[in-house]
Amino acid sequence: MSNQKSTLPKGTRDFGPDKMVKRNFIFQTITAIFQKFGFLPIETPALENLSVLTGKYGDEGDQLMFKVLNSGNFLEKVSAQDMENGYKKLTSKISEKGLRYDLTVPFARFVVMNRNELVFPFKRYQIQPVWRADRPQKGRYREFYQCDADVVGTDSLLCEAEIVLMINEVLEKLGIGDFTIKVNNRKVLSAISEVIGYPGKEGDLCVAIDKLDKIGKEGVIKELEERGFALESIQKLDPIFEVEGNFAEKAAKLDAIFAASETGKKGLQELRTMMGYVEGFGLANTHLNFDITLARGLSYYTGAIFEVKVNNVQIGSISGGGRYDNLTGAFGLKGVSGVGFSFGVDRIYDVMEELQLFPAHNQTTTRVMFSHFDAEALLYTLPLLKKLRESGIKSEIYPDAGKLKKQLDYANNKQIPFVVIIGSDEISSGKLTLKNMQAGQQQQVSLEELIRIVQAG
Amino acid sequence: MSNQKSTLPKGTRDFGPDKMVKRNFIFQTITAIFQKFGFLPIETPALENLSVLTGKYGDEGDQLMFKVLNSGNFLEKVSAQDMENGYKKLTSKISEKGLRYDLTVPFARFVVMNRNELVFPFKRYQIQPVWRADRPQKGRYREFYQCDADVVGTDSLLCEAEIVLMINEVLEKLGIGDFTIKVNNRKVLSAISEVIGYPGKEGDLCVAIDKLDKIGKEGVIKELEERGFALESIQKLDPIFEVEGNFAEKAAKLDAIFAASETGKKGLQELRTMMGYVEGFGLANTHLNFDITLARGLSYYTGAIFEVKVNNVQIGSISGGGRYDNLTGAFGLKGVSGVGFSFGVDRIYDVMEELQLFPAHNQTTTRVMFSHFDAEALLYTLPLLKKLRESGIKSEIYPDAGKLKKQLDYANNKQIPFVVIIGSDEISSGKLTLKNMQAGQQQQVSLEELIRIVQAG
User: Fold this and answer.
1) Rg of chain B on CA atoms, in Å
2) CATH code at position B396
3) Residue A31: which pLDDT band, with cuts at 50, 70 and 90?
4) Biological process (GO) annotations (chains A, B) (predicted)?
5) What is the CATH number of the domain that holds A277?
C-alpha cells in the first residue's frame, strides 16, 4: 500500500514526546495555580448538539463550526426537495451534532443542566481542545487547546482581582516576566459612546477601536465614519483617549468626563474596587495597565475586560477574558453573572520557545537505562531494575542485546542522563558500571550508590 | 428561550468536579507508572483523514465511525447522480475527515510519518478520547477515553513481561488487588487450528472460542460447526482445552500435543521466555493465568495476547492487548513489530466505585476557605490568603459578604476541611477563628499556627 495515506488533516498537529513534555509543563503550571485559587476541573464532550452551538458565535462561527454527519443512513428522511435547497439547508437535515467551538458555551450549557446540583459561586477550570474550520496559518490551527477558568454566580469584583493574580503567578512561574495585563471595563466603553452622542452604539465603537493596533488612528476614524459616527463626535474621543498617568490619575480625569454618565461612574467604580483588591493582596508588580482603548470585540462582556500581551514579542495576546452578566441566558437561566479568562496555550508555547524558557531537563523522561549484551546479563538486570523503580526512579532496560553504540544512541536521543552497563565483569564483581551521559565519565558503583547518585543528580 | 436546547448528544457525558477528581486520580496513577517504565506521551488530533481510518476496523467500524461534513459548500462538487447513489457513496463525496476511532491506527500513522525522527524501540503512551457511533448502553459510550501504551520496533519479549508488571503495579496502586491477567499467544491458537486439521482457520476458531464465556461450550461447538469445522475435529479440542495445572504443567502437556507444529512450539517458547522474565523480576504475585481459550477477536495480534479481569466483579475486561507484527504495514512501513495494551478507564472507574476504592479526601480541592462579613474584613483577609497560597496551600475566600450559614454550606459542599472566620473580633485581636469542618470544633490561632495545622492535617 502507498504512503500517501498517512497524512494529517489541514490545520491539525501531532505532538511527539518533546512537544508533549513542554506542553504538559505549561498545563501543569496553569492547573496547579488554578487549583491553588480554589478552581475545580470539569470536562464536557467534544460533540455537542448543533441546537446548543448554533447562533452563539455569529454567522461566521456557524460557518466555521465542524458538523458531524448523522450516523447510519443520513439520507433516509431527506426529500428530493431538501437536496435542491442548497448546502446550508441540507446541513440541518443530515447533521445534528457539531464539534465544540469554544469552552464557554459548553460551560454555560453545563451550568444550566446542573444548576440544581452545583454550589454557587461555582469556580471551574477546563482544559480541552476546540475545533474551528478556519483557514490555517502560522499560529492558527483547526484543532487547538483552550484553557479557561471562570467563576459564575457572584458579581464580586474580588474574582476580577484574583484573575489578575492568577495571570501574574502563571506567567511568572513560566518565566515570562515582561508582560502587560491590559484592563478596561465595558461600562467605560458604553459611557464613551454616550458622551460622544451615540448611546448604545458602543458595539460599533468597540469593533473600530479594537483595530487601533492594526490600522492606526486614521484607520479607526475612517471606520467609525463608515459606521455612521459624525466626525465631530469622533473628535470628542481625542481628549478621552489621550488621558494619561497611572490608574488613579486616569480615573480622576475620567470622573470629570463621565460626570453626566451613571454608566461611566459605575464602570470607574468597578475598576477602582478591583484595583483596590489587587493592591490589598500586596503584589510587588501587578503588571496592570488601564487601557481605555481595550475593547476585545466580544459582545457578551458587561464589566471588566482583560487582555495580556508579552512585551517585546510579536505574537498578539496570550490571555484574555472579562465579565458577562448573561452567559446562561441563551439556555433559559437568567441573572447568573460570571467572570472568566483563557490562556492561549499555543501562543504561550511559542513565546517560551522564542525566549528559551523551557527547562533544559524534563521530569518526564527515563533517568536510568540499563544496557546488556546477552541473555544472562538481561536476567541479572531485572531485579536491579525493579529496585530502581521501587525507589521511584524512572528507568528502563534497552530491550535487545546489541551493539553498545546503538544502545547509547538510544539513551542519548531520549536524553537519558545515566546508563548502567551490565556485562560479565559486572556480574562477577557485583559492581555496576555507571556512565554519566553528560559528563561522559564512567565509574563502578553498588546498587545503593547508583540510587543515591541518580536521586541526587 | 427554552431549556430544551440544553441537552447532551446521546452516549456522551459531562464530567463535573467530583468525577474529574476521581478520573484524574486514575489517569495520574497510570501516567506515573507508564513514565517509570520509560514510556513517553504523544497526542494525535481528534480529526483524521478518512483515508487513514477507513478499512482498518472492518465494515462495522467503517459504519460506526463519526464522519465530519466538509466545511463550506460541501455540495459544490456533488453531481445529481452522486445524490442518487445512496448515502454510502454520497458520504465519500461530502466528508473527507472522521473522528479518531481508537488510538492504535493514529499511532501507526504517527510512527510512519515520523519514522525518520523517532528512535526505535519507541515507547509511547497516549491518553485521549475516541468516538464510536455505537448504540449507547450501560458502560458503553459514544465518546470515551482510551489509555494505551505500546513499544514498537523490537520483538523482545521483555516488553511483554513489562506489560505484566505495569498492569500489576497500576491495579495494586489503585487498590484493585483481586484480579487475573489472562495470557495466551496467537501462535498457540494457530497451532490448535493446525492440529485439529484446519491450518490457517484460527480466525474462525478464535471468533467462536471468544464467546465461550457468553454462550458456553455447547454454543461454541454449534458456532464452530456453522463455521465449517467437522464435529470430529471439534472433539479434538476437548483434550487441549482441558489441559490443567500451572503454566509449566500446561506447557509440558502442550509440548506433546504440538509435537508436529513448528508454530505451536514457537508459541510455547515465547510464553516460556516471557514467563521467565516475569519471574526474573521477582514479583510476589504475578496474577498471571495462561488461558488457552483466550482469543480476543482482534485479528492483528501475532504473538502474546493479554486480558485482565477483576475477580468477583461483573464488568468484563478492564485491560487488554497483545503483539502485532505488522501494525504499520497498512501505511507502507513493513517489518515493525510492536506490543501494546490499553486500560479501560471507564470500567476501572466503575470497579473502584463499586469497591469504594477512591480516596475519601482528594488533593484537588481547596484546603482553607476564608469567610468574611463586610468590606473591612475582606481587605483584612487578602494578605492572609496570599500568605497561605505562597505556602502552597490551596485556599480561597468566599467572594461575597453574606450569612455564615451560606458560606459554611459552600465549604461543606466543596469538602473544604478548614474554614477561617474573619470578623471584627479577629481583626482587633489579630487571631484567626479556625473551624475544623469535620470535627466541628473552633479554635483561635495565629497565621503561622494555621499554616502548620493545615499542612499537618
Assistant:
1) 28
2) 3.40.50.800
3) very high
4) histidyl-tRNA aminoacylation
5) 3.30.930.10
Q: Is position A103 annotated in a ligand binding site?
A: yes
Q: Which residues of B sit in the known binding site for L-histidine? A: 102-104, 132, 146, 150, 296, 300-301
Q: Residues B294, B411: one domain? A: no
Q: Over 80: is that where the pLDDT of B276 sits?
A: yes
Residue A1 clears pLDDT 60, i.e. is over it = no
User: Which chain A positions have a beta carbon within 8 Å of B64's beta carbon?
Assistant: 71
Show the DSSP H helices in A125-244 as ranges. 158-173, 186-195, 202-209, 212-226, 231-235, 237-241
Asked if B41's CB is within 8 angstroms of A20's CB, the reply is: yes
User: Which of A299, A333, A354 is the last residue in one of the domains?
Assistant: A354
B168: containing domain: 154-354
Instruction: Tell me: is residue A150 an annotated ligand-binding position.
Output: yes
pLDDT digits (tens, 9 = 90+) for B60-84: 899 999 999 999 899 888 888 888 8
Q: B317 with B179, same domain?
A: yes
| Residue in B109, B114, B282 closest to A16 by CB | B114
- What average pLDDT does the segment A147-175 reach? 97
pLDDT tens per residue across span A59-91: 889 999 999 999 989 988 888 888 888 898 899
Radius of gyration (C-alpha) of chain A in whole angstroms: 29
Taking the CA atoms of residue A23, residue A26, residue A28 and residue A32 in that order, the dihedral angle to the nearest 10 degrees is -170
Looking at this predicted complex, what is its ipTM?
0.93
pTM to 2 decimals?
0.94
Indicate the residue of A9, A69, A95 with minimum beta-carbon distance to B45. Answer: A9
Sort out which chain A residues have CB atoms less than 8 A from B95's CB and list them: 69
Question: Which residue do the cell numbers 521466555 mark?
Answer: B273
Q: Is A81 annotated in some ligand binding site? A: no
Q: How many domains does chain B have?
A: 2
A374 labelled ligand-binding: no
Rounded Cα distance between A98 and A115, Å, is 24
